[in-house]
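Here is a typical protein record:
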Amino acid sequence: MKNNTPDSITLIDTFANKINITDPAPYVTCIVSNENKQISIIGGSSDSLNVIHIPITDHPQPLKDGKWSINSDFFKVFVKNTHTPNTIGFLFDYDDDPKYPMLAATKLAYGEQGRYCQSVEAYQPHIEYYLHLSQKQFLDIMPQHCHEIIHLRYKHKSFTGIYINKEQQTIQVVDGDNIIDYKYPEDLLDFPATVYLTAETVKTLDSMNCSSLNTLSLCVEQDQVLLSSPAGHFSSSNKMPDQINANIAATQDNEVIFIAENGF
């Protein structure tokens, strides 16, 4: 199976870079679905999982439906060593085991390391995460939202994150130790949520190629943010730095004082 879409190659790199090889559960899990015509790959860290969907192209020998896991360190090296700018090749060898294949590289671009790895029974927490994704509440992000956020990222050399307050229509960018306030951009007027996006999240957003043909969506949870597209789902922490938390607390205190004075 080969995936020839450059955008998907970028997402594979993003996915591999997010793999934590020191995680207590050092696995990447694959779900092959001929009905959906895709391979879904789950991995990352136990508390911050990611998913990519790779289309299954036509082949004289169709892939077998199934689910299984492989060593995450192997997969990270495998991705680095097996793709060119436009393609990546996988070989699933069932000769030794009819249920759990050997994953092999069809061609190594940069050396011989990472050629083979035997898969094992699918890591169940990955399967459960994948199944629960459909139950999460995602909000659409328009192309103009993505472009404005990415534009603000590149304006700051030491960009750490951006806090978008939908209700108050304020923008704060964390640039190193500094916080820069911005007038709320017109392109964000209908942004769907109040959220803090870290530099890592915005970098992922940039790699997901938001466009009129590839609308993204956002899910804001207590400890993390999920970005989703038809090609995959990526999670990252949304923990706000102390400077932003202090500003929010100060704003809330001012609101309380204002209400008390006007209630006299």
Q: What stands out?
A: DSSP finds six helices and 18 strands in the chain. The two ends are 72 Å apart (CA to CA). The chain has a mean pLDDT of 84. The chain has two domains: 2-132, 139-252.
